[in-house]
Amino acid sequence: IREASQPDEWIICASFYRLLCLIPTGFPVRSVNMQRSTDNITIRQGDTAIIRCYVDDKVSKVAWLNQSNIIFAGRDKWSLDPRVDLVTKGQLEYSLRIQKVDVYDEGSYTCSIQTKQQPKTSQLYLIVQVPANIYKISEDLTVNEGGNVTLSCLATGRPDPAITWRLLNPSGTREWENEMTEYLDITGIMRNQAGRYECKASNDVATPDVKYVNVVVNYPPKIKKTQSSETQVGRMGTLQCEAIAVPTPEFEWYRDEARLSNSQGINIQILGTTTILMIANITEDDYGNYTCVASNRLGFQNASLFLYSEYCIMHSATLHPLWVLLPLLILCQIRVEEDKRLDEFT
After folding, report:
1. Are strands 95-98 and 49-51 parallel, antiparallel or unpaired?
2. Which of 117, 244, 314, 344 has its CA 20 to 30 A from that of 37?
3. In this protein, which residues make up the domain named Ig-like (predicted)?
4. Contact 202, 155 (CB under 8 A)
């Protein structure tokens, strides 16, 4: 304790809790009940905290302490912190104000008073809360279907934030939610689990902090839609094949074992995940089975499509699904070939 330079102006008093303070005379404060429990004051980081102590004319000396350090003795400031000052309203209030509160301001604050009988104290505990902040999250990643994925999301805050993981794309409705789950493990990831993952850190101090991870799942092609064609001789025939895959599939067309390419009378178009085979000026030789092949580096899949004539359709009273028509189409193709041989003979 610093020795008083003016003994008639300063006295040294010891609080009941062994906190020592140097207090000037002549500043009245309200007497404090020693049996009262410590009050908590909760403040958010960056805000201004006011720790209140009220005065009356029954006591003569007062000081503010943080643990064992003197902040104010009477109106004399002992702290070098420019953020700290007094809030006084005449002789009625002796409150401590701390601007731009930070975590190192957290702790016990004591308003110490001197009465004629003995020193008394009012103790308050300042709790500093910090908004949740995500300081590290996994980078965007690409994985093959069936692989294992671990996503990490590290956050700070006071109190400790709860971490929530959520898959945002419409095809993945599953939601993972666990408090303090910094790591999300996905075993045997499926294609419908690809998309944008949201990590949200929240502790009710401020608006939750949110960051995102994009997960791409590679998988081999799957042909999801085909469209055969019934076309008259002399018209244009169109066959269509649609496949899904990641990466985007490449397409090839075959007639029997021969690969088709853009040439006179044949036009192959690829529009994203769909390919279209167009054959101009159909002849009877063009009728039959065609094969669409979709492939990427993970695999391939093929599908059969049919170009058939109106002559064959007339043999069916109603329009049937392709699997019903398939035997009929084969018979029709045989009939067409027989007709061709008959024409050549005659």
Report:
1. antiparallel
2. 117
3. 28-114, 119-214, 221-296
4. no
Q: CA nearest 90: which of 27, 142, 39, 151?
A: 27
**How confident is the model at residue 67, as a pLDDT?**
81
Q: Which fold has domain 10-130?
A: Immunoglobulin-like (2.60.40)
- Measure the CA–CA gap between 47 and 66, rounded to whole angstroms: 19
Q: How far apart are CA 33 and CA 51, in angstroms?
A: 17
In the chain, domain spans = 10-130, 138-218, 228-345
- Measured CA to CA in angstroms, residue 297 lies from 148, 152, 249, 261, 304 at distances of 20, 29, 9, 21, 22
Q: From 3.40.50.720, 2.60.40.10, 1.10.260.40, 3.40.50.300, which CATH number describes the 228-345 domain?
A: 2.60.40.10
Listed in sequence order, the residues at least 6 apart from 240 whose beta carbon sits closer than 8 Å to its beta carbon are: 225, 226, 227, 274, 275, 276, 277, 305
Answer whether 172's CB lies under 8 Å from 102's CB: no
Contact 145, 159 (CB under 8 A): no
Instruction: Split the chain (346 residues) into runs of 10 and give each run's mean pLDDT.
Output: 34 34 37 50 94 76 88 92 89 89 94 77 92 97 96 95 86 51 92 92 94 96 94 92 96 93 92 95 92 96 90 47 53 51 47
The pLDDT of residue 251 is 97
Fold assignment, 138-218: Immunoglobulin-like (2.60.40)
Please tell me whether the peptide bond between 24 and the residue prior to it is cis, using omega within 30 degrees of 0.
Answer: no
pLDDT given at position 181: 80
With tokens 């502790």, the residue in question is 203
Q: What totals of helices (H) and strands (E) does the chain contain, helices first?
A: 2, 26
> What pLDDT is stored for residue 342 in this prediction?
43
Angle at 265 between CA 263 and CA 266, to 5 degrees: 60
Tokens at residue 215, please?
């997960």
The reply to whether 228-345 shares the fold of 10-130 is: yes
Q: In angstroms, rounded to a whole number, what is the distance separating the alpha carbons of residues 24 and 13? A: 10
Token pair recorded at residue 324: 């019903």
